[in-house]
Design a protein that fits this description.
Layout: E1 4-6, H1 9-21, E2 26-31, H2 37-49, E3 52-57, H3 77-86, E4 91-93, H4 97-100, H5 119-122, H6 126-141, E5 145-149, H7 153-165, E6 171-175, H8 195-200, H9 202-216, H10 221-235, E7 240-248, E8 262-270, E9 273-280
Parallel strand pairs: 1-4, 2-3, 2-5, 3-4, 5-6
Antiparallel strand pairs: 7-8, 8-9
Bound molecules: adenosine monophosphate (AMP).
Length: about 280
């Protein structure tokens, strides 16, 4: 089957309605485009688990704050379509802003608690934008399953909460973080890095892994966080660390002890680029 490109919400809904009538299961992979191997791993996973796969490509203005990189966020539609085709997607939903937010649009989804911590503290309103657009994308495409990367661990947790709270009847599937061989998590924003910054960036993941060793040895959460932060700053003196936090993997509340299912998350500025990463600590 060839790849279908839908830019209109009605057309997308109509296409999935026909698939559903034929008894076909649908998997959705929501993205903002500038696709890389991380996205490809989600699409391939969706391909294995569903009869039809829809990839949405939408740079969502509602999840960018004033002064953030909405305008310069990388856009590469023809390369993205080629990647979707290679990974076996059936359709790409690529709506314009007015398809998603028509004039007069005034509703927002707020997932309380989870939205205000970590990323939410540094990017106020970000998760309201994420939850609102994800709900709209789920409503348009009505998938059985939707695929999200652990790379954006807080987003994955929040979408799971929303799907459960609102009885959306969609399975939220979390997928492992795809990395470069040197450990740097793949991200569309890596394209912003200068060659020098790119060379330094793997130190973030290395610092998380080193600090995880401490946690496994029984160190306190604060000591683990201090070690990760110090190691990042030792490797990248010009870095600015927004946060390094050891949290409960389910609730994202600060870990009280280095025990149980935890996650170590970080957000770090390298020059004008803000990178996030996280790793599991105990499984
Ligand atoms: P984005 O286009 O950055 O909004 O990401 C779209 C989806 O791809 C989200 O669910 C991300 O968590 C996921 N994703 C982004 N980078 C990676 C990666 N390196 N590995 C796995 N999933 C990723």
């Amino acid at each position: 089957m060839s790849l279908l490109l839908c830019t209109r919400r009605r057309r997308m809904s109509e296409l999935v309605r026909r698939w559903r009538e034929q008894g076909l299961s649908i998997g959705l992979v929501p993205t903002m485009g500038a696709l890389h191997e991380g996205h490809a791993s989600l699409i391939r996973r969706a391909r294995r688990g569903n009869d039809r796969v829809v990839v949405s490509i939408f740079v969502n203005p509602a999840q960018f704050g004033p002064g953030e990189d909405y305008a310069r966020y990388p856009r590469a539609l023809s390369r993205d379509l080629a990647l979707c085709r290679r990974c076996g997607a059936d359709a790409v939903y690529h709506p314009g802003v007015s398809q998603v937010y028509p004039e007069g649009f005034s509703t927002a989804v707020q997932v309380s608690g989870l939205s205000e911590r970590l990323e939410g503290k540094f990017r106020p309103g970000h998760f309201r934008g994420v939850a609102t657009v994800v709900l709209k994308l789920l409503e348009t495409t009505r998938p059985e399953r939707a695929y999200f990367g652990e790379k954006d661990y807080q987003q994955l947790t929040l979408v799971r909460r929303m799907a459960s709270d609102l009885d959306l009847g969609v399975a939220i599937v979390g997928c492992p973080t795809a990395r470069q061989p040197d450990g740097l998590a793949l991200s569309s924003r890596n394209a912003y890095l200068s060659p020098r910054e790119r060379a330094l960036a793997p130190a973030i993941h290395a610092a998380l892994v080193a600090a995880r060793g401490l946690a496994r040895g029984g160190a306190s959460p604060k000591a683990v966080e201090r070690r990760a932060r110090a190691r990042i700053l030792a490797s990248i003196p010009q870095a600015r660390v927004d946060y390094v936090e050891l949290v409960d993997a389910r609730t994202l509340r600060p870990a009280e002890r280095a025990r149980g299912r935890l996650r170590l998350l970080a957000a770090v500025w390298l020059g004008k680029t803000r990178l996030i990463d996280n790793i599991p600590v105990f499984n």
